[in-house]
Design brief:
alpha+beta; 688 residues; binds 2-(butylsulfanyl)adenosine; five-stranded mixed sheet; globular
């Protein structure tokens, strides 16, 4: 294929893929099978690989995340992103309507648009000539963080705006066609669907990472990730609810704006509705709240946003300090009820964390019977002064785990019992220590709760991948003390297993075969499978790249660990304290003795061609982003400093270099322009 044909092919594939993304992620109504989609995508990846210079940042293949950033840049919003004032009752909402009528001196009904208020993170997207060019968080309303790379990974955010041809498919043929503006600023709420949030938290617990408190925190944490490859793994979605600057088009109403956004392929909430007068708004609020109690929404709603539809009227109404006069958030009732704490139980989580759980007299809260509520930790219990026997207000925040809001102290009769978490683990009787706000059992994998989870993690698909060891078997082996630590997996004998229930000759030898095969997994998998806190699959790979063997990693100093890009102080400390534990060292010793490979035989040596070299960057770089250049140098063992001195080995100059350039000339230091630097990196050979 020549270049011209390739470009045509690439354009065609991109357009097709963008359209199918839109059908799948925005409309939720795909028109091709997953396999067909994968085929198209694969074809695009292959064609782009043959002609890499034809790859553009808005290609669907570029949604997978990029090199991590050191910090976010800031982006100013052309028009400030405001917040909303709240109403909590029908009366307050009617007052809002009256204020508007008074201000505008209008007697008749105002036309409103009512829409769900999604609980997520406000962001702004900028499209230039239909191409997604940047995206930012709300920040302080005037400037936010540049999270472009992260937003690119959200599939319901189009990389290119679509034209009418596509939106016709939605059966809205009467819709006016809006040509694509030269500049479009779109506002919306990024959120994490509740099911996806729950799945993510289960995974995090497995990886010994602390779970997110609610979907909003999960969404915000994911968007504000410096490593967009992590964002790419998070199931995020968006609803667009407004616009900033739209160059060249003047809409008459909010409703019309929302329709134009839909026509350009942006995702707008399907429950958005025109309400003639405030009574219809109040009815809408009631309907939405009732629906919430009957069938939980796929995402967290915390109320309804009411907006004056006419943009002219919006202009006349203007802004009152930080929120517009023309809109209000009519919140839903927090779903709260009163009940009594019968007892407080203590659960032991996968990381050994002791979690106090209140066992309640069952109570129906918003249609769901609640019997337990999390008390989080001891600090929370002390702060709220929660005692066994207390009457408490419980709340279902959104659709997640119920919690105790407050104690009704007036109802105390004196027999309530204060609660303290035990200093011995309720499962294994080992010592419990305090680790920040958390009480933790110190027995690690010797504690049955932690051991079962540790084994589950060790044998998991991404770990040592021993398929024949399912949850039921793990329970069975731990309960029968056939396995007392993960290394015992490798000393399992046929005669030990066969006497247990549900095992036969064939299943035992299958399992033993799989265990045998797992001895040769990569070092990265072995490191991951140990379940060190903070060390997920990605960090495990980085560690395996840097160290030749588990031994070397075990004895690495704090300095040696933090020298590695992406290993921060917390991760380094977690790795060190894992290997300091006698028990963990013994397990590793046992693994080695059992024949588990603990070093990488084919070792790819890291390219450290800049080891010991100092670089200074000056002027505006045009080929590289400054942070990328810095990272590339550091990855190859070099260091970037800010001042030119005799110790400097190279000065890389961009456009308009400053005094550093003169100093470099004066000290006769090697000066490189960006092209020369690129050659030095040998980017063509892809060594980076
Ligand atoms: S309109 C001036 N519409 O609620 C108008 N906001 O407290 C500002 N939000 O920062 C926002 N859903 O993050 C609007 N349908 C919706 C919304 C919505 C959620 C969030 C948004 C905003 C906050 C306002």
């Amino acid at each position: 294929m020549n270049e011209k044909d390739a470009l045509k092919e690439i354009e065609k594939l991109r357009e097709e893929i963008n359209y199918h993304n839109y059908r799948y992620y925005t409309l939720d109504s795909p028109v091709i099978s997953d396999a067909e989609y994968d085929r198209l995508f694969k074809k695009l990846v292959e064609t782009e690989a043959k002609f890499p210079h034809l790859i553009t940042p808005d290609s669907p293949t570029q949604r997978v995340g990029a090199i991590p950033l050191k910090e976010f840049k800031t982006i100013s919003h052309t028009i400030p992103m405001l917040s909303l004032s709240n109403a909590n009752t029908d009366e307050e909402t009617k007052e809002f309507d009256e204020r508007i009528k008074r201000f505008l001196e209008i007697k008749g009904e105002i036309e409103y648009v009512a829409e769900p208020k999604i609980d997520g993170l406000a962001i702004e997207l900028v499209y230039l000539h239909g191409k997604f060019t940047s995206g930012s968080t709300r920040g302080d309303g005037y400037t936010g963080e540049d999270v472009t790379q992260n937003l690119k990974t959200i599939k319901s955010i189009p990389m290119r705006l679509l034209q009418m041809r596509q939106s016709e498919v939605r059966g809205e043929k009467s819709e006016t066609t809006y040509s694509i503006p030269s500049r479009l600023e779109v506002r919306g709420e990024v959120f994490m669907p509740i099911k996806a949030f729950e799945r993510l938290n289960r995974e995090r617990e497995k990886m010994n990472e602390s779970p997110f408190a609610n979907p909003r925190n999960a969404a915000a944490g994911s968007v504000r990730q410096l490593d967009s490859r992590i964002t790419a793994t998070r199931p995020l979605d968006i609803f667009c609810y407004g616009a900033g600057v739209i160059e060249g088009i003047k809409f008459k109403s909010h409703w019309e704006t929302m329709h134009a956004l839909k026509g350009w392929g942006l995702k707008v909430n399907p429950f958005i509705k025109i309400c003639k007068g405030i009574d219809e708004v109040i009815q809408y609020h009631k309907d939405m709240e009732e629906k919430r109690d009957k069938i939980p929404y796929e995402y967290e709603l915390d109320g309804v946003v009411v907006k004056v539809n006419s943009l002219d009227l919006q202009d006349r109404l203007g802004i009152l300090t930080r929120s517009p006069r023309w809109a209000i958030a009519y919140k839903f009732k927090a779903r709260q009820e009163t009940t009594r704490i019968k007892e407080i139980k203590v659960g032991v989580g996968r990381t050994g964390a002791l979690t106090p759980v209140a066992i309640l007299e069952p109570i129906v809260v918003g249609g769901v019977t609640v019997e337990r509520a999390t008390l989080h930790n001891q600090d929370e219990i002390d702060r709220k002064d929660i005692r066994i026997g207390d009457y408490v207000i419980v709340q279902r925040a959104g659709d997640v785990i119920p919690e105790v809001v407050t104690v009704i102290k007036d109802k105390r009769i004196g027999s309530e019992i204060p609660f303290k978490l035990p200093d011995k683990c309720p499962l294994c009787n080992s010592a419990v220590i305090r680790d920040g706000a958390i009480h933790r059992c110190t027995a690690g994998l010797l504690c049955p709760a932690q051991l079962k989870e540790g084994i589950r993690h060790f044998v998991s698909k991404r770990g040592m991948n021993i398929e024949g060891l399912g949850d039921r078997h793990i329970e069975q082996f731990v309960e029968n003390t056939v396995i007392k630590d993960v290394a015992d997996i490798y000393s399992l004998k046929k005669e030990d297993i066969i006497k247990l229930e549900r095992w036969g000759d064939k299943s035992v030898s299958n399992l033993l075969n799989q265990i045998e095969n797992s001895k040769n997994r990569t070092l990265a998998r072995l490191i991951y499978s140990l379940g060190i806190r903070q060390v997920g699959e990605h960090i495990a790979k980085i560690l395996a790249d840097d160290f030749d063997s588990l031994d070397e990693l075990m004895n690495a100093s704090y300095e040696r660990l933090t020298e590695i890009h992406e290993i921060g102080p917390e991760t380094a400390e977690s790795i060190m304290s894992f290997f300091k534990e006698r028990h963990n060292r013994d397990v590793i010793d046992k693994l080695r003795k059992a024949g588990v490979k603990t070093e990488e035989r084919v070792h790819k040596k890291r390219d450290l061609r800049f080891k010991g070299k100092q670089f200074v960057l000056t002027g505006t770089l045009s080929i590289f982003k400054r942070e990328d250049a810095k990272e590339l140098i550091e990855r190859l063992g070099g260091r970037v400093t800010s001042t030119v001195s005799k110790k400097t080995d190279f000065v890389i100059v961009g456009i308009d270099p400053g005094s550093k350039y003169d100093k470099a000339k004066e000290l006769k230091i090697k000066i490189l322009n960006e092209e020369e630097f690129k050659d030095l990196l040998d980017i063509k050979q892809n060594v980076i």
